[in-house]
Amino acid sequence: MKIKKGDLVQVITGKDKGKQGKVIVAYPREERVLVEGVNRVKKHTKAGQTARGSKTGGIVTTEAPVHVSNVALVVEQDGTKVTTRVGFRFDDEGNKIRVAKRTGEDI
């Protein structure tokens, strides 16, 4: 998968189109990523008690994963942030390096 944990991405389709956020978790098998502040859903949690006796539960807002095809990597070019596709190249030692297609820089 070309998007990794810690990358800054922008949503390119869906209800959160245009929003930017950092990737919290990547799920390569499902081809999904969890982006902070994007695809927020309300989750109903069962009421319970903590060790101190206070009540917990109710409606919690949390992020849900989005498909990796719906986000684009954001890189900085001349002080502005632009979206780009990701490619790969190999260096002299044979290590695989991610490359921003739009700027040509290593990521």
UniProtKB/TrEMBL annotation:
GO terms for biological process: translation. The lineage of its organism: Bacteria, Bacillati, Actinomycetota, Actinomycetes, Kitasatosporales. It comes from the Bacteria. HAMAP family: Ribosomal_uL24_B. One of the proteins that surrounds the polypeptide exit tunnel on the outside of the subunit. Residues 2-29 form the KOW domain. Part of the 50S ribosomal subunit. This is Large ribosomal subunit protein uL24. CDD domains: KOW_RPL26. One of its GO terms (molecular function) is structural constituent of ribosome. NCBIfam families: rplX_bact (TIGR01079). InterPro entries: KOW, Rib_uL2_dom2, Ribosomal_uL24, Ribosomal_uL24_C, Ribosomal_uL24_CS, Ribosomal_uL24_KOW, Translation_prot_SH3-like_sf. It comes from Streptomyces lonarensis.
